[in-house]
Amino acid sequence: MTIVRVTRFTTTTDTGALLAKRAELIDAVRARFAGPVTTRLVRDAEATWTDTWTWPSAAAADAAGEARLPLAAEAFALVTLQGVETAEVVDER
């Protein structure tokens, strides 16, 4: 079952630095785990960012999260977390 993990955050970090750290984290996670299959980062008008990572399964997402990669800690240090949600993909066209 495909899932998405959605992380909402705000940040005062320079956008270029944030994007570089995010890209580094995605590459590191993909090198060790089955996913994320796709990622998408958006920013709304109030400067809240939403980062959506699609995983082939909840087990794959959980394994990556449980690994506690130092790079993930570095990335999360750049943001103020607003919330994390996990949901099952029920239709995709």
Question: Can you tell me about this structure?
Answer:
The chain is an alpha+beta fold and 93 residues long. The protein has one domain. It has 3 helices and 4 strands. α1 runs antiparallel to α3.
Distance between the termini: 16 Å
- Report the mean per-residue pLDDT as an integer: 96
In the predicted model, the low-confidence regions spanning at least 5 consecutive residues are none
Order of helices and strands: EHEEHHE
Strand runs, count: 4
SS class: alpha+beta
Total tally of structural domains: 1
**Biggest sheet character:** 4 strands, antiparallel
Number of helices: 3
Strand order of the largest sheet: 2-3-1-4
Beta percentage is 25-35%
Task: Spell out the key features of this protein.
single chain, 93 residues, alpha+beta, 3 helices
Any chance you could write out the topology, listing elements then pairs?
Blueprint: E1 3-10, H1 15-32, E2 38-43, E3 49-55, H2 58-66, H3 70-76, E4 80-88
Antiparallel strand pairs: 1-3, 1-4, 2-3
